[in-house]
Amino acid sequence: MALLTPRNAGAMIRVSMLVLMVSAAVGAAGCASYAQRYAQANEDGLEAAGFEKRLADTPEKLAYVRRLTQRKIVVYQWQGRLYYAWPDARFCKCLYVGNETQFQKYEKLGFEQKVELERRTAAEENEAASLFGPWGPW
Known about the structure:
This protein is an alpha+beta fold. The chain has helices spanning 6-48, 59-67, 100-129; strands at residues 52-55, 74-78, 81-88, 94-98. The protein has a domain at 42-125. It has a 4-stranded antiparallel sheet.
């Protein structure tokens, strides 16, 4: 094992910093990827429920969308009626708007997707448990 001397300590620190920076970049890319998949999944559900997609196609509209809580359902009342909005200034640069009926359908779709995911996960676990068959564990 080599001793750490002042001569090679600098190189060791530079290598360590490089590894740390690369790890941070990869981690950040993974987070961005997750955020984009989350946004896309919600947008798909909103569209399926009948929400209207309104593009933030002017600087004023985009500034307005940015002021709202991002990628969460926001409830507001206008002219005595409830409306539901889902703003996303980062990915689609848009605002999805729906009414009570559409929101209920969106929630129902989310529940159905969770049930389907749980069913699929259980099936995959059962398949994995029987993977070894007559051979036993590796």
